[in-house]
Amino acid sequence: MVRINRARVKRKGSNITIRKSRLPRQLNWNARYGNPKEYRKQVAIAHRKTHNYCVVCLTKKSEEIHHAYYGNDVIGVSTFPTCYRCHQEICHSPINWIKNPSNPVWGNRNTDEFIIRLRLGYQLLYGGIKRYV
Fold first, then answer.
1. In a domain, 98, yes or no
2. DSSP letters along 5-68, please?
3. For the chain, how many structural domains are there in total?
């Protein structure tokens, strides 16, 4: 199965069959981010709060913002700075990411266990390790 212009293409011998995606193209994916100007400010603040480090691997510089779930964006609760690799390979891996076919724009989310892991990474980078002497 290959994609050509967002349509799934099934190759059988020399014949090519084109099927349209099950998801309508009219879905407003960008609605999840709200006002673009305000969103850019939130992104900059999120990166600054973790000193530009990824909350997943804790070693690489953060390049992207990961939404554990959509709506009510709160830095360190539902949105987290990540590096490109962790965002693609870990945050959205089938083990950690739940797809909601009935509401793909707002319903996709991380598992509860992974959200806890993201929050712990954020707390470590933002608040540091507290020493009890």
1. yes
2. TTEEEEEETTEEEEE--SS-TT--GGGGG-SHHHHHHHHHHHHHHTTTB-TTTSSSBP-EEEES
3. 1
Please report, in tens digits, the pLDDT of each residue of the chain (133 residues total). 555 444 555 555 555 555 555 555 577 767 777 778 888 999 999 999 999 999 999 999 999 999 999 888 899 999 999 999 999 999 999 999 999 999 888 899 999 999 999 999 999 998 865 544 4
Q: For residue 75, give its domain range.
A: 49-133
Whether 89 is in a domain gets the answer: yes
Residue 11 lies in a domain: no
Give a yes or no: residue 69 inside a domain. Answer: yes
